[in-house]
Write a structure and sequence with these properties.
The complex is a heterotrimer of chains A (about 250), B (about 200) and C (about 250). Chain A is of the alpha/beta class and about 250 residues long. Chain A contains 10 helices and 10 strands. Chain C folds into 2 domains: about 140 residues, no CATH class; about 70 residues, no CATH class. The chains are: A alpha/beta (about 250), B mainly alpha (about 200), C mainly alpha (about 250).
Chain lengths: ~250, ~200, ~250
Amino acid sequence: MKEAVRIENLHYTYPEGTQALKGISLRIYEGESVGIIGPNGAGKSTLLLHLNGILPAAGQGEGRVVALGEEIRRNDKRIRSDIGFVFEDPDEQLFMPRVFDDVAFGPLNMGLSGEEVKARVKDALRAVNLAGFEERSPHHLSAGEKRAAAIATVLSMRPQILVIDEPASDLDPRSRRNIIHLLNTFRMTKMIATHDLDMVLEVATRCILLDEGKVIKDGPGEEVLKNRELLEAHGLEMPLSLLLRSQNF
Amino acid sequence: MHIADGVLSVPVWTGCLAVTAAITGVSLRKMKAEDTPRIALMTSAFFIASLIHIPMGPTSVHLILNGLVGIILGPLAFVAILVGLILQAVLFKHGGITTIGANTVMMGLPAVGAYYLFRLHRLFKFRVSAGIFGALAGGVAVFLGAVILALLLVTTGSEFIVVAKLAVWAHLPVMVIEGLIAAFVVTFLKQVKPEMLGA
Amino acid sequence: MHLPEIDKYAHLDSPLHSWDPRVKIVSLFCLILSMVLASNLLVAGLGLMLAVALVFLSRIPFGFVFLHLRWVMLFVLLFFIIMPLTVSGEEIARFHFLSISRRGLELASLIGLRAFSAVLLVFPMIGTMKFSSTTAALQRLKLPNKLVQMIIFTYRYIFVALDEMGRMFMAARARGFRSGTNLHTLKTVGNLIGMLFVRSYERTEHIHRAMVSRGYDGTLRVLDEFALAKKDFLKAALVVALALGLYFAGWTL
């Protein structure tokens, strides 16, 4: 299997002194779908941000992140169009007054031609089931549609690695279900940080438990998620579906 | 406190437009790339905050907040106010198209003044100095705005002297309210997010 | 609180909707200029009729237009109350000690006609296209890129800030806040505004991060979808001719 991301002994301390990562080493292979779980403050978001190089310059760090064969440095200003980053709040991902302009934002910055940009916007919106939403305004979208549009803004750059922070927070059950279906249709390498362990069970082939800036457990999704004592020791709860199964309901 | 189209004389509104263009040009050159989203987001917040109506006896007044814009954004407040006024003219038809320059000068110059006035609070070490200077800056910005408004009207024609005087008088109670609001906001920010006040 | 949406009727079909945004903005701006410059009541009256005709042509419902005239009405009203009583000139009526002057009344009417004409023209100018077309046109008309970006982002986040403000006021009301003429109201409002500012401030870092991760380098690029046709110039010629006509009519009439 080809390696997509390699993280070697990564440390990071925020300018105000919070030690967020304390020596993380990981290898993620092409096509894997990795759920990253852990309590608040475990370091999930900080870890993901390293894949994009966008962290406060004042922070202290050491270690290496290599994605798709290239080392990523902090505050790297290059366009990382091969790593698509979807942030937690869609209102922060959708900063243009029209869905089209948001989805076209990345491709235009990549310097693609007008025709190519339009084709990519169309494809990306179709991929998230929002075909025909080009002219809509983000403030007229439902929470689920906003989430899908946020994903489209990154898909239009045709990334090889998709990094998503909390894809289903604040969604009603049906919209959450839609996002799960959507994530399962994407074939690229995925890294998904979330508190929604039931979702991890459905979308991830592998699960990494982080706490206090360290990798606590790394293994196949179900194996990590059915370890009740381990999860509870780190402030998490076993997914309900597994709990029910283990008690023979 | 917005001037609509069709009142000011041509030299007055074109002059204001030239002043606005010049200051905007300089400000934009000074703005760093990462300033753009920051100033824009704060402008939206000010825009929404200025829609709040404060009851005043039987009627209510809406907030102007130009002093606070200055306190928080510094000299870049001028551009923020220009953008806010463009959107107010387009969305609410509050203000005018040819008078965008006049309205920006009227609110933007006092905003920048408020910034320098507020900075003086650092010379004083007592606990509520930020609040007091916030009140001063907030109130003075409104007062200066009213004075500029009066000057623009009187420069346009002597027929407007009474309107101009009345405008200044009408802004006096607003000045008090704006000063108090600025003091409360500044005190809040001092506790919660002091770096927003340039600390 | 309610935010009017300027491009609510952008989907309609009219000669103004099909007009190239850049040419439309420039031509109608010329017309607004000619209205503001109207030097007598007759020309200003003609201007108002022309403005109403253009609104009619744009098919934007008059009800929608009327709702947006509140501020202009207040503004004009102020002049109508004060000017006739205070400007010296020929007296045309007298109530006890109040004397109404012809010159004051004329001046107030002139201001009113000009103000209404100008504001009415904003509807055919901006209301007949999506806001994103307006900003793209402004960018093509060489407005500084950063200024256009600020207009775009500010417009987008006005709606987000409005929701936030609404939630905060609702929470305050649920805890018993009632606004009145007192210091407590001002303090509560001050804290709510402060909270709104803090949230927006904290959001900026996230938004900037989302922009940078999609290749933002400080310049906004938009897709150039404009195509000029002969029709666009014909409409422009007509409107600019009307503007010039009004302007010169003011000298002769």
